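Section handout 9: paired folding examples.
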Amino acid sequence: MSSTASSPATATSDTFAESLRRTEAIRSDLDAHPERYRVLTGDRPTGALHLGHYFGTIASRVVLQDQGVETWVLVADYQVITDRETTGNIQENVRGLVLDYVAAGIDPDRSTIFTHSAVPALNQLLLPFLSLVTEAELLRNPTVKAELAASERALSGLLLTYPVHQAADILFCKGNLVPVGKDQLPHIEQTRVVARRFNERYAKKNPVFPEPQALLSESPEIPGLDGRKMSKSYGNTIALGMTADETAKIIRKAPTDSDRHITFDPENRPGVSALLTSAALCTDGDPVQIAEEIGDGGGGALKAFVTEAVNERFAAHRARRAELAADPGYVSEVLRRGNDRANEVAEKTLDEVRAAMGMVY
């Protein structure tokens, strides 16, 4: 593909159906050959991690790690300012992410946990990568379009180039597998385009970068307490680090309706159905069966059931998190080790990029 190929947002090679097919093939290969894969995943530290993060991504990261897949977990602190004007509470948020990662089972001795801002060579890849994409391609990216539509501010250069930042995140460590949801597929395709164009322009004989594949999440969209997608921006989350009492308090405030007979009906009863979904995820149960069990118990019985389910599911997580938090130097040591490894790998990749571009003097 040349640098004038069709944009990721309109490419037909990575349709959802094709991505599903690829995901099925990859999953069948993971158990037998975990050594073939290097996963890059992560989160922006914009607030506390919640149930949506856990069931949507974190639990699957632990599974991949335990399968023997090399796993890199990025705390994308630089990307906080992609759509925000401040980095308020950034240190607290980064610390919280690391504590939740480790409490959930991500092992710093087997997975690399690192911060964006601590790896200069990673971010330096942005310069050559930007030369490989057009403004029109960036503007067509669904995330850029959605963020711009939701914002009352002018489009910043950082938001416009966000998809290329993500390409650098993935390719600096030569990640070839990225766990994502359906809405993130255009980012993976953009990364594939960047890798392909770099190799064709500078490294045809000895390609520098792999073209990463998407590993589509098996988890459905996790509804928040109000029935909308669970999101920090909506204020409808159950944070992983909440105490049992805090969990009970926030669930008591969740909206339901006046019908005492509990049924699972996401379209007509979003609040009730969201609570049932949370209970089902935490108990590995079925929301319809849970609704039948509660029956005519009403919202009070439903909320009591959900509270018990969440608190039981995350009791061990919260105990481990508290234990880790009691050591003031723990998070810093995890990040020091992770950042050291990320810098080592990023510098090596940047050396390869310079060599391919003829910029070694």
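Moving on to protein 2 of 2.
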Amino acid sequence: MAEAVHSVRFVTIDSHNEGQRVDNFLITFLKGVPKNLVYRIIRKGEVRVNKKRVKAVYRLQAGDIVRVPPVRVAEKADDIPVSKEFALALEAAVLQECDDWLVINKPQGLSVHAGSGIQAGLIENLRQIRPEGSYLELVHRLDKDTSGCLLVAKNRKALNYLQEQLKAKAFRKKYHALAVGYWPESVTEVDKPLKKHDVGGRERVVKVDPKEGKPSVTRFQILKRLDANGVLCTLLEAEPVTGRTHQIRVHAQSVGHSLVGDVKYGDDKVHQHFKGLGFKRLFLHAASLGFPDPKSGTFVDIRAPYEDSLRLILERLSAG
């Protein structure tokens, strides 16, 4: 990849970056620069704030002037332009918005951000279609195969507040999931520790691990029992108390009722059965999201309607 060497730059901090640590600001600002180089130029005093040396933990204030020294930066590949149709679809998917945040009904199959093998995710596409200079950062994440409520902060202050509330468990997330089989009424909570395991390459699976797993709790409530041409299934509301990777999927599997369309943790025969009915995705949807508003403190509760793929499969199933 080609590299570019920038001259000394002076950046005036605005409200978008107020409260951010200077090391984190530089890691974002100097995309393509290794983190160890960022910390090196801070330690050597090449980075100055208001003409003074600072430590990596210094929190920026609005109006601060940051001196960014010349460094080699890997040139970023050009963004793939967002089509007009997709741009309109993304804007139409915004469920609610204010000056501090927006909640979007994330489509299934779209990663929330760029990563290995993925040049652009939802957040990169949103930044591209929104006015230049607008601030957009993910407050939390959803798996690529999960649809539904996703919260995006529109300024640094709101991001910090919302992430603090998330850590304090002040958020309330509820998912709708279609589980294979007759979910027992007695199972209203699954409390099983989970651990990620490497299975080769970049592939990872999550397993129940009583010895080394992290504490993980999910509450379940039965919404409806259904029959998919002879295969019984149960529509559930799942509320994760903790936020582990693949938590709902693995907890459902651990009690013998994997989710419909789950190719990683589910049953291949059941997966093929539902494909025959025209359903080719994971049935897991972030149906509602509640959180305290950064300005008022009022608890906001937002609901995301089903995508057509989920709505149509439920219409084809009969009561179980």
